[in-house]
Amino acid sequence: MNTVLVLATIAVILVVIFDYTNGFHDASNIIATTIASRALTPVQAVIVVATFEFLGPLLGGTAVANTIGKFIDVGTLPQKTAMIIVLCGIIGAIVWNLGTWWFGIPSSSSHALVGGLVGATLLAAGSGYVKWGFAEMTHGKIDGVAKILIGLVISPLIGFGVGFLLQKLMMRLFAFAKPSINKWFRRSQFVTSAFLAFSHGANDAQKSMGIITLVLVLSGQMTEFKVPFWVILTCASAITLGILSGGWRIVRTVGFGIYKVRPLHALDTQLTAAAVIYGASVLARRSRRPTWSVRRSWASAQPTGPSRCGGARPRRSSAPGSSPSRALASSASSATSSA
Hints:
Blueprint: H1 3-26, H2 28-36, H3 42-59, H4 63-68, H5 79-102, H6 109-124, H7 134-137, H8 144-173, H9 181-218, H10 229-245, H11 248-255, H12 263-284, H13 290-300, H14 324-338
Helix pairs in contact: 1-5, 1-9, 1-10, 2-3, 2-11, 2-12, 3-9, 3-10, 5-6, 8-12, 8-13, 9-10, 9-12, 12-13
């Protein structure tokens, strides 16, 4: 049997496994705030997120896949060498995903995939086979690793800024709202979590699509870089199955181990992260990092000062049915006193 074909088959299988680990690893960030704020039960959250995560890759286009599949240039290397480079990069990303999942550490699968491929290429072929893209930036063109790094830097900053402004706006609008407003915040998370899941699927699953298409081109199964529909369907299914498996270790860390998430925090976080990720996939056409967008928007949605509803800030956390403004005030007081 053709050795290259065997290596290509193994590579495709490993990419699907990576996509599966990506599902239960990264998607746990999506369902964490929904569960922590008691908007949905764990089963409801997983079903909603899995459904829209599956639709994301099918309807989200392939712009991100084109970026991910072209930042290493190993087409001129012997086919076996090129296949082994891709295999090593994928294995490194899978090991990272499993390790961080086991210890409940929130991290980005995209970082692991890009880093693994770049590292394997540097060791096996040298820096000349990596499309860094820094020289092209002097001519006004953003490409290669530079394009990915720019997305890495800008994405959390935009997420933090938008989340901060949105949280401030919501605090002003609902400063004097009745406690019953929390019911509306929880119900609204069905829409925002679905939007976030769709955006995440449209962005994250495309990375696996890009690598599988790269493998098909390197092995001679395709003559041009164009993502086939069966690759889109396979990656969408793999990441969805990963979500259905759940990443409860990371859910506990993000949803309960850092800060007590209120319904308003969760709503703002999901809306901000979804807008940043979807904008990156559709408008900017850059491969941003969904995981860091989610976490940075979550961080910026935390209270930074006293509520504007007036009065002293209580030192105990308010009950689940309390108003958003009082919850924010009490949380800020607790954070200040613990510091």
